[in-house]
Amino acid sequence: KQALLQELKGKSDTTADGKTVHVYANIGSPEDVSAVLENDAGGVGLFRSEFLYLNSRDYPTEEEQFTAYKKVVQTLAPRKVIVRTCDIGADKTVDYMGLEPEANPALGFRAVRICLTNHDFFKTQLRALLRASAFGNLSIMFPMIISVQELQKCKALLEECRKDLEQQGAALGTVEIGTMIETPAAVLCADELAQECDFFSIGTNDLMQYTCALDRQNAKLEPFCDPHHPAVLREIQMTVEAGHRHGCWVGICGEMGADLSLTETFLRMGIDELSVNPKSVLAVRKAVRSCSLSEK
Ligand code: PEP
Ligand code: MG
Predict the structure, then answer these.
(1) Is 161 considered catalytic here?
(2) CA distance 130 to 159
(3) Which of 38, 171, 232, 248 is 20 to 30 A from 102 via CA?
(4) In angstroms, what is the span from residue 72 Cα to ligand 1's centroid?
(5) How far is CA 40 from each of CA 7, 25, 33, 214, rounded to the nearest angstrom?
(6) pTM for this one?
(7) Residues comprising the binding site for phosphoenolpyruvate?
(8) What number does the ligand 1 atom closest to the CA of 201 have?
(9) What ipTM was estimated for this complex?
(10) pLDDT tens digit string along 4-23?
């Protein structure tokens, strides 16, 4: 079976009736780039940047971050690489940040909530990302967004960084901006959010957790988890429709994206991209290629 999948390398991510649906890979460190290439992913739909913070004894510097992003973007050029800004907090904590223990960490001080509280911390990452954008095709997306105001604040800080860097004469590329849709609030505000960004990436792991009130860390809850829960599928449909109304493309980067029993459903909803674990790329490509959307 593995041998048959190998034959799909170099083939396009196109349905039998000609619609292209990008199949990208999720990665969590620069070392994962080899898996992206080995599995012939069209790009990286989610580069989790937490490795920089988790593998460090202190705040990673702008230079350290720049080097890591540049390496990935340059090696994979001209493929798209979507970097998610720091999603520390909840299950992922580090001592040097001095985050206090919380009663409800999943509902707590995490991701953009930390970044929008500590602007210097956030701007270090944004500057590193903008500088790396000169070396390939880099996009930036923001996690755990719950409102348009949050997205606007993230964008304003990014603009500040861009202006500073331009004044310093730095070379910068064009950067697409994306919003992760992983809270029910983001789904319900998707029309407004879509007017402020270029793409949506649906984080179904958290979207499932927050929609169904099911702690994703708690193994005891497994019998209560329905990976095809109609509420989450409806949210995906709503997100695609809202995104497309305003010219945003829409992808899925949570684990549901690799569920082959849902590939056709997602494609019929109009999903433009599926970003999955590198090992699942060829299997998802196969599923995309065997869909025919014009047939009922
Ligand atoms: C998600 O929530 O679905 C997601 C892709 O992000 P993470 O699993 O890193 O929270
Ligand atoms: Mg998430």
Answers:
(1) no
(2) 10
(3) 232
(4) 20
(5) 11, 9, 11, 34
(6) 0.97
(7) 48, 84, 205-206, 216
(8) 5
(9) 0.99
(10) 899 999 999 999 999 999 99
